[in-house]
Specification:
166 residues; mainly alpha; three-stranded parallel beta sheet; 7 helices; 3 strands; 57% helix; 8% strand; Lara_isomerase
Length: 166
């Protein structure tokens, strides 16, 4: 037992486990990907990274909840047949919300929150003179910040991950 290099064994244990895992997955007809190469190889890292991004995207899609502003009724198969079919097949939902629902949330955003977001804009971007503090377009920046914050709050409160409009 003293002559067994356990570090080497642990590092190379997929000689059996990898084959077993692959065989079982194939017999169960599970979707899978195979990446070969040394664990420190840049090409192996690239391929594993691509697979990981795809796996995360697929999992996110299964739970995706999309808000569609302005349209017809929600969850009605007669008018929303394609959306209902997509929800069944892909697992995500795209439901309609009235623009007025969004407007209520946008209008509830306070000046303090708006000012904080504008401060962030000013520290991240170079604003044109017209959009700076005494510029004639400053109100446009304030309104854009109010809409951004309202939309973000609406989406967070509804558990949405994305939105679209009609």
């Amino acid at each position: 037992w003293d002559s067994i290099d356990m570090d080497f064994m642990n590092l190379n244990q997929t000689a059996h486990g990898g084959r077993e895992f692959g065989f079982i997955g194939a017999r169960m007809r599970q979707q899978h990907a195979v990446v070969t190469g040394h664990w420190q190889d840049k090409e192996a890292h690239t391929r594993i990274g691509a697979w990981m991004r795809q796996a995360v995207s697929k999992q996110d899609t299964r739970q995706l909840k999309v808000c569609r502003f302005g349209d017809n009724m929600r969850e009605v198969a007669v008018t929303d047949g394609d959306k209902v079919a997509a929800q069944i097949k892909f697992g995500f939902s795209v439901n309609t919300w009235a623009v007025g629902d969004l407007v209520q949330v946008v209008n509830s955003i306070g000046d303090g929150d708006i000012n904080a977001l504008i401060d962030e804009y000013e520290s991240s971007y170079t604003l044109t003179p017209a959009t700076q503090i005494h510029g004639d377009k400053r109100q446009n920046v304030r309104e854009a910040a109010r809409i951004e914050l309202g939309m973000k709050r609406f989406l967070e409160q509804g558990g949405f991950h994305a939105f679209t409009t009609t």
